[in-house]
Amino acid sequence: MNILYVITRAEMGGSQVHLLDLLHGFRDRHELALATGERGFLTEEAARLGVRVHILPDLVQPLRPHRDVKALLSAYRLIRGTRPDLIHCHTSKAGIIGRAAARMAHVPVIFTAHTWSFAEGTSPLWKLVGTPSEWLASRWSESIIAVSESNRSLALRRRIAPSSKIVTVHNGVPDTLHRARPGTNGVPRIVMIARFAGQKNQAQLIQAAAGLQHPFHLTFVGDGPTRPACEELSRSLGLQDRVEFAGIRTDTDRILSESSIFVLATNWEGFPITILEAMRASLPVVATDVDGVREAVVDGETGCLYPKGDMSPLCSILQVLVTDPATRIRLGQAGRKRYEAEFTRSAMLRKIQSVYEHVVPGLCESQSALLSA
């Protein structure tokens, strides 16, 4: 089957990593192509896999009516020229434009909602146009994949589409040989992997760490506009010798394997891949109790959840974990078992393949064998 994937940005982010996993998993079973609005991490990785890449320069993230029309026409011409059997769109702008172009070209289309254009954290303009745009685009979709039950429930509350059209497929990540030893003696190492942006709350983690009455080392992996302010906060609290800003890294599996505790301080989420990577590494996970996070982390069993915006519980949780290696080991081992049971890449691919088979049954009948990891 010939599948065209469409996404707005090519930066290193959760949606892009997820799509890259689809390219890895399906490249030996389907003929794949990628369309995006820019060159970057995703297009480079896709090219290494031998996936055809198409750049639609007018496919940009902000609402730009003139460019959006040009992007729609470019996507339509691409579809007419390449004749895919199925289009699979990701992220809000690409989801709306890609589905409209698919409708014009009479090609079946699927949309994965990593988050919704009307969800918390989106711009006021997107929130204004998001609900009617998603409602209309859903009429052009054969199926919609939500990455969490939280995302699915939000769409149903907004009456975006009937329940029969929206299916939840949790993200999954490929296994690696890297494993953490969270109970190892020495200074506990806390790590957070996330972009420095308004969605995340690295500042809250820095403030909580300042209250710890035990040695620790804290590493932030990622970059973005809020990083300078976080670096200044770290210096102002006298933590510059205990807090490291590592920037963007491609060896996060190794960094996780050298850590003791994983933290995701955040304001909203779809279904964060970094939590799954931490569970895969056998790390205890501490995370804000929001959206899809609570579908990955079992509070008290694989990690600890704390209320959004409340730093005191975060500090208390970290104080327990930095002083109790046995608890770190117990939570980390339970997280690893949950990853193996629920969140492997092969499990995710099997579920998405089932969606493909439902949408284009004739072309998928010969490809229903279990997918390898």
Summarize the structure.
The protein is α/β, with parallel strands linked by helices and 373 residues long.
Structure characterization notes:
The protein has 373 residues and is an alpha/beta fold. The protein folds into 2 domains: 2-173 and 344-367, 3-Layer(aba) Sandwich (Rossmann fold), CATH 3.40.50; 189-342, Glycogen Phosphorylase B (Rossmann fold), CATH 3.40.50. Helix content is 44%, strand content 16%. The chain has 15 helices and 13 strands. The protein has helices spanning 14-26, 41-48, 65-82, 92-105, 124-139, 149-157, 202-210, 227-236, 252-257, 273-280, 293-296, 311-323, 325-342, 345-359, 361-364, and strands at 2-7, 31-36, 52-55, 86-90, 109-113, 143-146, 166-168, 189-193, 217-221, 243-247, 261-264, 285-288, 303-306. A 7-stranded parallel sheet has the order 3-2-1-4-5-6-7, with helices on both faces. Strand 5, helix 5 and strand 6 (143-146) form a beta-alpha-beta unit. Helix 3 packs across helix 4 (92-105), helix 4 runs parallel beside helix 5 (124-139) and helix 7 (202-210) runs parallel beside helix 8. The protein is globular and about 60 Å long. The relative contact order is 0.12.
